[in-house]
Amino acid sequence: MSGSVSPVRNDQEVAAAPPSDSVRTAVTLLVIVHLFAVVAVMAFWATRPITGNATQRESFVERLHNVSFLTGHLQLLFQDLGYNYFLTQADQLDVDHQFVFDLKLQDGTKREATLPQPDLWPGIRRQRMQILANLAGQRIGEDGAESILPRLTAGYMARKYDAVSGTVRLRAHLLVPPENVRSPDSKLSDPFAAAYYRTPYEAQMLVRSGQVSLLKAAAAGETAPSAGRAPRTSPGTPPAPGGNP
What pLDDT does residue 148 have? Predict the structure, then answer.
């Protein structure tokens, strides 16, 4: 008795079988749509003027960017960002700031915290916190305004860590001047050297009934810097080559 015998497929052959044509088609289509969305948003930011004109007719790229499906897709993946980068002028508005908190907790222990945190994820959250800290730095010296953002962030930290008192400092990280980049002195060429950090704002935190008030410290420059910290002067010109910071 003769007849055809179908080949027997073992488990390894079944596991190694490629996905079906429909699955591959669907994945390819999703990849193409994603890449198209990324190119569309990059084209939008690249062609968008710094100051918009309300009377200007909406371009094709702008209409494409405003498609709800593409916008929602890019925002979900944190990719609807500005891709138009500009040269820095290295002035006070270009200085990155960071909130530094020295907290005394309810149980008597102490804790240091920063905002934004270096490992904050996703990256878009850290960028937004960085914008908040930079905005606080731009308000330094404005009566009635310079303590608003430090007080709000101090209240957030006090509630988060159950703090009863502490200190909030706004630390500025200056840029290395071009003439110091190739300096053999590491105190001048190292972008993370203490000479390139300033503390233009410092205040004591007073916590009462869950509310935080700030008592601003002496003007920056009147307080001697503690060991291991940069001199507490307002953001300005970094140290000159060969000079003392």
Answer: 94
